Amino acid sequence: MVESLRSVVRVVNGVVTHEGEGFQVRRPFPTPALADFDPFLLLDEMGPMSLAPGEAKGAPDHPHRGFETVTYMLAGRMDHRDSQGNQGSIGPGDVQWMTAGAGVVHSEMPAKELLEKGGWMHGFQLWVNLPKKDKMMRPRYQEIPTERIPKVQVDRSVVRVIAGEAFDVRAVIETRTPLLYFHVTMAPAARLQLPVPYDHNVFAYVTGGRGRFGAERRVVTEGTAVLFGPHGADVFVEAGSSLDFLLIGGVPLREPVVRYGPFVMNTKDEIAQAFADFQSGKMGTIPAERA
Ligand code: MN
Known about the structure:
By secondary structure, this protein is mainly beta.
């Protein structure tokens, strides 16, 4: 049988930068080296870090339009509030999938306990672009607690299926375009061949340990993204002494991307409109906190 494995086309090191009130993130893209990876616009890894009391920071009220923000926590807890009246708290293993669409103002802040007592913080935020036809859709909010995220064990690897489908296990989150988002944890020296849809752009981001990826068995260590080429049915992975990674993929939109800060549209005029709409209050404000 002819092997049909995805090839590694690029390895991208995460760049350390700061977001929101000044919390540190590791970011494989966007950076000067890589603007985006259609349909994905950004990936940030927060931590892992140990925070002293009073040290936790967040991102107070700010808008988004034209895409989705996906937050996945492994340690620590973030509180969310938005102009649609959604209020949530995302802890270890939980996922928040926010479709900003036409516009949302939200705040992403450390939970009171994390701020007061300090503790471990580790999480990810992914920005998923919306197709032109959905950029002005009504905002949507999905919050999935850890116990509702399906898990599948394959030999000595565990795959958490946040979006898409792996080994006949289907995610509960609904996406606008076909996407996959897996969190894979592998035992030392374990091997895995993960089927991925032929029409998806796919990348891995190593969050812990090291492993060999792709047809070339390229060695990749934590804090690094591996971009795969378009051909091949499976992603091959072999763990080193331990390996933990995200596998993320989606059908490319192949549409113009014009981004400015929290807005991602198709034209400069649409970006100007987004600013005008935000400034005139059309994206709303966050309602006063419920008791
Ligand atoms: Mn945000």
